[in-house]
Amino acid sequence: MRRRLVLALSGLLLLTGCAHPGRAPEGQLVSETGTVRHIDLAGGFYGILGDSGKHYDPVNLDPAFRQDGLRIRFTGKPLQGVLTMRMWGRPIELTEIQRITPAAR
Questions:
Q1: Quick check: helix, strand or coil at residue 88?
Q2: What secondary structure letter does DSSP report for 15?
Q3: Of the ranges 1-5, 43-47, 68-72, 76-80, which is most confident?
Q4: Does residue 100 have a pLDDT over 90?
Q5: pTM to 2 decimals?
Q6: CB neighbours (10 Å) of residue 37?
Q7: Do 94 and 39 meet the contact criterion of CB atoms below 8 Å apart?
Q8: Is-contact 95 78, C-beta < 8 A?
Q9: CATH for 24-99?
């Protein structure tokens, strides 16, 4: 009986998901500044290294922004339950992106 209860509770926990520290709740947007980086894994791809130190794997990065070292400001929706072969960063669907131009000196 106890084993069935543990299995049932474990299954319920898997179905409902777990909160993870540092992750945005489902439906909540993330806004941050960061740097586009070319990552030489899984055939190569572009990711975003946020100024917070978090790694983002944008699923819809416009080719115009695929430049290693490009500074950007972005907003996006973290994707829940999405797995990628790259296993680098949090999958995110970008809703807004803009270049950060260096200040004139």
A1: coil
A2: H
A3: 68-72
A4: yes
A5: 0.70
A6: 18
A7: no
A8: no
A9: 2.40.50.500
